[in-house]
Amino acid sequence: MRELTHLEQLEAEAIYIMREVAAECEKPVMLYSIGKDSSVMLHLAMKAFYPEKPPFPFLHIDTTWKFKEMITFRDETAKKLGIEMLVYTNMDGVKQGINPFNHGSAYTDIMKTQALKQALDMYGFTAAFGGGRRDEEKSRAKERVFSFRNAQHAWDPKNQRPEMWRLYNTKVNKGESIRVFPLSNWTEKDIWQYIRQENIDIVPLYYAKERPVVYRDGNIIMVDDDRMKLNSGEKIEMKKVRFRTLGCYPLTGGVESKADTLDAIIEETLQAITSERTSRVIDHEAAGSMERRKREGYF
Amino acid sequence: MRLREVWKGAKERDISRMKSLLKFITCGSVDDGKSTLIGHMLYDAKLIFADQEKALELDSKIGSREGKIDYSLLLDGLMAEREQGITIDVAYRYFTTEKRSFIVADTPGHEEYTRNMAVGASFADVAVILVDATQGMLIQTRRHIRICSLMGIKHFVFAINKMDLVHYDKNIYDKISRDIKRFVGEFDVDSIKMIPVSATEGDNVTKHSFKMLWYQEETLLEYLEDIELINFSKQEEFLMAVQRVSRPNHNFRGFQGQINAGEVSVGDDIIVLPSGEHAKVSGIYVTDQEVKTAQMGQPVTIQLDSEIDISRGCVICKNTSMKVTGIFTSKLFWMDEEALIPGRNYWIKLGTKILPAAVMNIKYKIDVNSGEQIPAEHIYKNELAVCDVILSEKCAVDIFDHNKDLGSFIFINRVSNMTSACGTVMHTLRRSDNLVWHETDITKKIRSEQKNQKTRTVWFTGLSGSGKSTLANELEKQLVAMGRHTMLLDGDNIRMGLNKNLGFTEVDRVENIRRIAEVAKLMNDAGLIVLTAFISPYEKDRENAREIIGDDFFEVYVSTSLEECERRDVKGLYKKARNGEIPNFTGITSPYEVPKSPNLIIDTKEITLDDAVSLLIEKLEENERNNV
Fold first, then answer.
1. Is the Cα torsion angle B502, B503, B508, B512 positive or negative in sign?
2. Annotation: CATH topology of B323-432
3. Do A51 and B252 touch (CB under 8 A)?
4. Which CATH number fits domain B444-626: 2.60.40.1180, 2.40.128.30, 3.40.50.300, 3.40.50.720?
C-alpha cells in the first residue's frame, strides 16, 4: 500500500463521479467544448468505463465562431475514439445574424447560453457534465460537484443541496436538471500536468506558433477568417502567440509566448502572472458577472 | 533573474515529484476571521495570481474596512455574501507549496448555514478551527468541533486568532488552550494542536511572530505541510462498493468501483454482500490498464470467474467485519427545514446503494454545547441525534469508525428530493435486539408521503350523461401514469356492494352520498387520491361530503347542459324518464342544484377530453401548492 499521488487522487475522484452519474441519472450527456479541460474530461470518461465506451453522448455547442482548428480537432477526436458527438447551433441566432462583434454580451447569451438550454431541452438530458473548475473564478469556487438547475436552467446559489462525503444525491424534481463538474477540484496546473502524464491530444492552438493577430482593447485577437473586420488603426501582424483558453476566436485573447512544447507550457503556467480567465473577454465586464450569468443559465 | 531561478527550481520539483494532497477545512464562529486567515495565507505565500491580487486591492478600496487590504474578499465569492459581509457557503481554494498540494474548504460560521459547514467537514482530513482570543470558545465553536468529529475528522488544529487584540498575552492563550483540551477530550481524535495567530497581521500564519516569542513551535502553514494522516502499517481487508456493472458485450462482465479499503489481487477469493456468494478474481483493471493488484483509492473494474448475481450497491470484499443488516444505530445530523419524524419514509443512500428507510426511534438528541443527552420527539434543522434506522431490505453496512465510505449515509426527502440529513453508523442491530418503534403513530401524512403524493378527493358532480365517469376514468389513468396511487368510486363499485340496500328515495340518496364521503375519507387517510363520479344533485349533500372529507375535498362541476346530455343519452335513460318510466330522474322530474363555488367547472361540450384532463391536473397541482 502506498499513498496515491495527488493526480491519482483527482483522477479517481473524477472517475467516481462519472460512474455515479452513469449509474443513477436517467439521460446524461457530456458537454465538450474542445478545450483542454474538455480533453481531460473526455480522456477520463474513456478511462472510467473501459473497456466499454462512455455510456452517454457528447455535446458541442457550436456558435459558428470557434477557431477552425477546434472544429477539425473535434471531428477527428470523435472519429478516432468512436464516440457519439452531437453538435448543436442556435439556428435562430444565426438567422438573426447575431455575432460577437456587434452584439457583445447578447451574443454570449443567445449563441451559448440559449443554445445550450435549447439543446438540453430538445434531447431531454437530465444531467450534463461540464469541465468547470473551482479555481477558475470566485463564484465557481462555491459551486457543488452536483449543481442543480431549475426548469429555466437557473442556478440558486443560496439554496444548494448539501453534498456530504461522496454520497451524491442525484434525485431531480420535475423539470430540474443537474450540471456535474467532475474536475471541480483540479487546478489549471493539475490539468497541464495530467495532459503531460497521460499524453493527451490537445488543439494545436495551445502551442505557440506564428499566427495572424490584431491588438484590440489590450487583447491579442487572432484573425481566423475574413469575418473579422478591422477597426481603423488596426493591422494584422504575425506574432508567435498561444492561447490559454479556447472559445470563440473574436472573444479569446492570446498571449505572446515561445512555449511550443508541453513542458514549456507547464513552465509558463507555473510562472503565470495572470490567471486564466483574464483572456476571456466577457469576464471583465463586472465583478460578479460570472455568477449573474450562471443564475441566468450559463453553464 | 532570481525569481526565474526560483520558479525553475519549483518547476523541476513539481514535475518530477508528485506530491500528496491535503484537504482541510477552516471553521469557527462568525467573525472569527476564517476567510481573512486563508486569504492571508495565500497572499503571504505569494500564491495568488497577479490579476486576482489586483482585483482584491480594487475590491478592497471599494468596500473595505479602513482602506487596508481585506483578505477575506479573496474567498467570499458570492455577491450575496459580499453584500452581507458573511460567508454563506463553502468556498474551495487550491494552493501548492514545495511540500504539498492543498485544498481548503472555507466554511460559514453563521448558525443558519451550519449545514454548509458540515459539507466542508465531510470533505476534509484536518480541521483548522479558529477561536477568537478576545472571546474564547463560543457555542458555534463547540458545535463545529462536534460536527467535524461527526463527519469523521480526526486531526484538529486550533488557531487562537486575534492575538494582536489581546496584546499577544500568553495567559489568555493558555486559558483558551486549556478550555479547548478539556472540551475535545471527549472526542475520538488522533491529533490536536494549538497555534496563537493573528490573521490580519499575519503572526504565525506563514511566518513566525516576533510578538509572541513565547511560542516557538510551527506556524500554521508549516504544521499543515508536515502533518501525517494515514497509518499504512494498519492492515485493512479489501472492500469495494459496486458502482456499476459494465457489460459492453457477451464476453465481458466487470464490476466497477473505487476500492474503499485494502488490496485485491488476481486469484483472490472474494465474498459478495449481501448474498454471501463466493468467487475468485479473474481480472483487474485500474482505469484502462490491466493489473495484477490494486489498492485502496484506485478506480477499478473487477472480473470474477463465475456468473454470480451482483448489482450496484453490492459490496465485494475479502474476510470482513462488515455486517449484513436491516437495522442499525446511527448519529444523525439534520439539515432540512422539515423536521425529522420517526416512521416517515425517506430514501437512504448508503455507499452506492439507494433504498427506502425510516427512523424507528429517536434515542436522544445531543446538546451541541454540553454533549448532554436529551429525549426528543422530533429533530429539527442543525440538530444532532442518535437514532435507530430501519432499512427496507438487508444490505452490507460497516461501522463509520471502521470505514468512512461504507458507514456513512444520507437521507433524501421523497417528495422534495432534498438531502435531509447525513449520518454515521455507530453499530448494527439484530431484529432480536429488543427494538421498539417510536411512539409516534403512522399518520395520514406519513402514508401519503410514502406514496409521494398529497391526498385529494376529486368530487365530480353533474347531470347523468354529462361526462363525469369518462373524465374521472381518464384523470385516473393520467394520475397512475404519473406514479400516483388512486381509487375511483362510481356507481358500479358502490351501488353493487356497499350501498346495494339503498334505493332512490330522497332518504336513500342522502345516505348514499354520506357513505361515499365516509369511504372517500378513509381512503384519503390511507394516503390515496380518490375520484368520485356521482350525480350528487343536492347542495346540502355535497356540503355534508365536504364536511366529512375536509380539506381534501376538491369539487368539479361537470356543467354539460341538460340539452346536450339528453341529446347524448348514452344509456337511454332520458328517453325512459321522459316516458315516465323512471321516477325522480335528475333534470327531468327531480332538481339539480348547481354548485355555488366549485373548484373547477368543465363543460364537456366546450372542451376536449385531453384538454379537460390537462386542466384538471393543472388545477390539482395549483391547489396542492396553495393548500399544503
1. positive
2. Elongation Factor Tu (Ef-tu); domain 3 (2.40.30)
3. yes
4. 3.40.50.300
